[in-house]
Amino acid sequence: MKVFESRVTINRPIHEVYSFLADLNNHQQLMPENITDWVSTKDTAGFNVQNMAKLSLKAVSRVPDKEIKIIPAEKPPFDLELKWELFPVKNYTDVVFSISADLNMMLKMVASGPLQKLTDHQTQTLGSILS
């Protein structure tokens, strides 16, 4: 499993950050421009990655004010898990977003850059939205 990770510090209490991330409807705001046809509920999200694939995700685990795990709702081209981890620090929250992906050697070469960019984009955008 290859892990792509990005961190951000949010100047908000942990329960506010968790509340935003726990609802998958809010994740559309975190996506880059190449994401289209977004459909979501509190627990699921479906979308197209322009010129690549259609993905359907679901939240499978929520630990209040600590962690949210999201996995594919349908069989993806490769196994993956998205995880948001929250750490309280006084009046702000440290957030770690990671994507764990089971990539073969060819997919590593093709997908590593875009997956790292996605993790960085989502944490930076989360910081902008909640600051």
From TrEMBL:
SUPFAM superfamilies according to UniProt: Bet v1-like (SSF55961)
CDD domains from the UniProt entry: SRPBCC
Gene3D superfamilies, A to Z: 3.30.530.20
Name this protein carries in UniProt: Carbon monoxide dehydrogenase subunit G
Organism of provenance: Mucilaginibacter gotjawali
